[in-house]
Amino acid sequence: MKKALLLTLAFSMLVPMTATSAFAHPAPHGHYHRYHPSGARVRYRRHYVPVYRPRRAPVVVVTPAPPPVLIVEEPPVRTVVRRPAEPARAVPRQRAPERRTLSGVGLRLSGATVDGEKVGLSTAENPAMGGIGVQFRTRFGDDQALGLELAADVINGSGNNFDQRTIPVMASLTYHLFPTSRLQPYGIAGVGVHFTRLAYLDGQYNIDLTELAGQLGAGVEFFLTKNIAINADIRAQTIFKNLDTQEKIRTDCLYQVGSMTGFCDNIHSADPNDKVNLGVQLQAGATWYF
User: In the structure, what pLDDT confidence band is assigned to residue 21 with cuts at 50, 70 and 90?
Assistant: First the structure.
């Protein structure tokens, strides 16, 4: 019984809700309800319901300013080419320029001609002579421009019925213009002693002279290698002082007439007084420097 009452009450509540939902359609769309409580079809006219919308605020479109353009200048691109590393090499130490004192010995050829009188026999003395000699040369000073030469020569010459042999022993100073080059012009000046023998009549009558001499000249020296050099020069000579005279007469040149003794022919005119002789000497030689 209770169950039947509950079903009836529930049904009665559902019927009004269904009818209300069927008639509660708003305008403006006209339509028909298929079911009506009276059983008739009712047509609803469309009508409009004013709708009030709130006024919208004006729309403001804000366009943001474009961002600032920054111009950045980049430095030019440097291209660096890397080469493979080379193995380390030992760098030789630079040596200081070699400073050495040039000293050397050498041989030379010599020729000389002298004009003048030694013992008053101008036609029987001072012929053209030639020979060989030795020389010692050395340099000194910071630039090696100044030098010293010591030399001795043996030169011989002959004429009509006489022979002459002279041994000049000279000490001279030299000055080289370009001491560091291979070709070195130089000047030379020196003094020395000439040892001279005049032999007449195949040596029957000999005169030995010791004379003071001087020389002044110029030449050139050329270095073939670091140690070998050749040189040539011309020198003016003067023999101006007779330091000593010795006469040697062989017995076969003496004539004994009674108690008087005489000389061979033409020997009695010999005069040992001081004489001045002028001449020229040529030198050409080679020197080995050590």
Answer: very low
